[in-house]
Design a protein that fits this description.
The protein is mostly helical. The protein has a domain at about 25-70. Helix content is about 90%, strand content about 0%. It contains 2 helices and no strands. The protein has helices at about 5-40, 45-70. Helix 1 packs antiparallel against helix 2 (about 45-70). The model has no long low-confidence stretch (mean pLDDT about 90).
């Protein structure tokens, strides 16, 4: 078993909390982009929301990987 100092543990807890908050914000961005995409009729804005949705999904995947790595 790996032992870590209390100060390191506190930093890990803070980092996890920060990542959780960022994951929640990113999930909200995904939902928002999806809602805008579904409501839009202008082709240019549809493309815009597709790019926005893809970017938010990639960010979400990145944040999840980072969060999982902290758990190890």
């Amino acid at each position: 078993m790996i032992f870590i100092r209390k100060s390191q543990r506190a930093l890990l807890i803070l980092e996890r909390q920060r990542l959780r908050a960022e994951i929640d914000r990113t999930r909200n961005s995904i939902d928002s982009a999806r809602n805008h995409f579904e409501q839009e009729i202008d082709p240019t804005l549809i493309d815009c929301y597709i790019y926005e949705l893809n970017a938010a999904q990639l960010r979400y995947q990145f944040l999840l990987r980072r969060f999982k790595n902290l758990e190890l």
